[in-house]
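Posting here for the record, re: adenosine-2'-5'-diphosphate.
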Amino acid sequence: ANPTVAIVGATGAVGAEFIGCIETRNFPVGKLKALASARSAGKTLPFRGQQVVIEELTEASFEGVDIALFSAGGSISKKFAPIAVKAGAVVVDNSSAFRMLEDVPLVIPEINANRIKDHKGIIANPNCATITALVPLWPVHKKNRIKRLIISTYQAASGAGAAAMAELADSTKAYLEGKPYEPKVLPHPYAFNLFSHNTAIEETGYNGEETKVIIETRKIFEDQQIAVNATCVRVPVLRAHSESITFECEAPITPEEVRALLIDAPGVKLVDDREKNYFPMPIDASGQGDVLVGRIRKDLSDPSGHSVSIFVAADQLLKGAALNAVQIAELL
Ligand code: A2P
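Prediction output follows.
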């Protein structure tokens, strides 16, 4: 029989895309359980032409569930993922709760699908900024090891959830109407502004998001030596993350070689039209599953010819979250 699938956080920004990906990819689902907080219990969600009634997430929610896709925040995952595993489900978790645990595979299918089989009940979906960077860097790293990586992000509202997306729209409207707006979800004014990522600054001077990119890259590439520097910034874009990336390889590498490695790479689409000045944009990345890659050029600050710069964009809610998780579920 087809698996029973539970969506934890079904009413959220990622939750809605879990359901969308299951539908568009024709994921074989016997029964879909939509789980959220008590606030949403009793409301309905459309799924394959029918209405699914949302249930409150409780310790009893996972009976008979084969696969549970979690995106309701780290504390919900910490509490309920082990309960789901005990009930016999395999969990694909979108939070950061389990990513760095040794017996939890951290998977981007284009890179390390082979790790899925090592799971002990939980598989972690990487951070969205990590996924966006690593999908196009992997073919390069495999061919000519990347020693050092500098990433600057331009991250969308969607990464902070549906309420943050609404805050971007509402505060922009208020701004244009000359009305005051008090931010409720994000720590700073969002309309016509940008700010350092809203995760806390740690002792290193790096914020939580930046640290995730650094440590997750090492785990996914299985390369503890790769040197990573990240600057993560929230920009007033609704749902796709962009990133400026410069990498230094062990052996010399040209932009032409990078282009050749990426042209047929899985999960990558080249958008690199110098003549038209047309490069990856969040508006083009939104609603599709590839990481768009362009601005492929020599890093002129490294005359030795070991370094290349690129600019990328990917849908945070799809490849950065729901699509990656559903791809993992398909391989399960
Ligand atoms: P709800 O809509 O009932 O609050 P987002 O990432 O877009 O902010 O979405 C968060 C998701 O997590 C929503 O589906 C939300 O459900 C769910 N959620 C938040 N708190 C809880 C909770 N205590 N129990 C179950 N689901 C929760």
